[in-house]
Amino acid sequence: MFVKFFQMLKIIIVLIVAGVFCSNLANAKGISKEKCEEKGGKYCPGPKVKECYLFLKEEVSSFQDAFDLCVKNGAELPYYTITDYTNLLNCSKIPWEFPYTMFFKNPLPTGDKCLTATRISLMEITTQNHCSIKGKAKVGCEIPL
After folding, report:
1. Which UniProt keywords are listed (predicted)?
2. CA-CA distances (angstroms) from residue 84 to 52, 103, 142?
3. What is the pLDDT of residues 68-94, one digit of tens each?
4. What pLDDT, on the 0 to 100 scale, is given for residue 36?
């Protein structure tokens, strides 16, 4: 009799713990969106990528300056990916006029950590491995969720 009682008690405890865990997960999604918007970001819950994009007003000439600005704002310099760009286009308007240049982390497994991407139009882009440029680049960051 006591064995059945303890088995039932274990099941009830497991269900309570699972309910609290699931509740925390559900609330975490809302907190992430709130955190994104509190920091001035644009929350984009895409089908493959869930991101918080932060567009800064500052312009820089080096990868390190862009990296530092993102960190200062509680964000990260993003990796360059087409999936991420598609997600952004589906949920937000890019705040800059074409053409514009941005610094990104290089997603390829190479020693080159710096990447510049110049967006000429919505669908036309050029990329180069540069850690600094002569002109100015826009700064776009991602706030980790």
Report:
1. Signal
2. 11, 15, 10
3. 999 999 999 999 888 888 888 888 888
4. 87
Rounded to whole angstroms, how far apart are CA atoms 8 and 11? 5
Structure token pair of residue 40: 């001035």
Whether residues 72 and 123 share a domain: the answer is yes
Q: How far, in Å, are 49, 106, 121 from residue 88 at the CA level?
A: 9, 18, 15
Q: Within this chain, do residues 97 and 125 fall inside the same structural domain, yes or no?
A: yes
* SS3 of residue 122 by DSSP: coil
Residues 58 and 97 in one domain: yes
Whether 66 and 33 map to the same domain: the answer is no
How many domains is the chain built from?
A: 2
Q: What is the predicted pLDDT for the residue at 33? A: 86
| Domain range enclosing 9 | 1-38
Q: Specify whether 65 is located in the same domain as 108.
A: yes
Coil, strand or helix at 116: strand
User: What tokens appear for 20 in the block?
Assistant: 């609290």
pTM of the complete model: 0.73
Give tens-digit pLDDT for 63-75.
999 999 999 999 9
Q: Is 74 left (phi over 0), alpha (psi -120 to 50) or beta?
A: left
